[in-house]
Amino acid sequence: MIAGHFGLAAAVKARRPAVPLYALMLATAWLDIVFVPLLLAGVEGLSKAPDAADAGYGAAFIHAWYTHSLLGALALSALFGAFFAPRYGRPVAVVVGAVAFSHWLLDLVVHRPDLPLLPANALDLPLLGFGLWRYPVASAGLELLIVIAGFALYWQGAVAANRRAAKSVGLAHAIGGAAFAAGLVVLAVDFFSAG
Fold it and tell me: What does pTM read for this prediction?
C-alpha cells in the first residue's frame, strides 16, 4: 500500500493547499519510518503468511506491535502532527496528524489480521486486518485507484492554483505528470518485485 499512501497525500494536498506536500508525504509513511529501525533492532518483525503461495506482494504478516497498534499509531500520528504546529499552526498540524493516522486505516484494509489494538498486543486482544492482500490483484487494483484519484485531484488543484496566480500551467502539468508516473512506478515495483 506504499503508492496508495502517497496517492492519499496528493489528494489531501489538493484540498488543503496550505499544507506542505513534503509533510503530507512524510506523514503517510511515518508509521513505516518508525517501523524500520524497530525491525532492524528485532523489536518488530515480518513473517511469511501461511496462506500465501509465495513471498510476493502482501504475503507477509507484519509484526509491528508498537508502530502499527491502534494506540501506537494514534500516539505516533499525534506526535508527528505536533511537530508541525509551531511552524505551520494548529490547522496544518491536525491535517498532518490525520494523514499520518490514515496509514493505519489503509493498512487495516489490506493487512492480514496482524494489527494489534494496544502496543505489544497487551491484553492479548484480537488482531485486526481485513486481509485484502490475500487477493493481490484486487489489492493492487484498489491501490491503483487511490493513486489515480489522488494524483488526479493533486494535478487538478495545481493547475487551478497556477491559473489563479496567473502563472503558466506548464510546470503544474509537468510536476503532476511526474508525481503520477512516480506513483505508478512505486506500485509496479512493489507488486512485481515481490511476486
Answer: 0.82
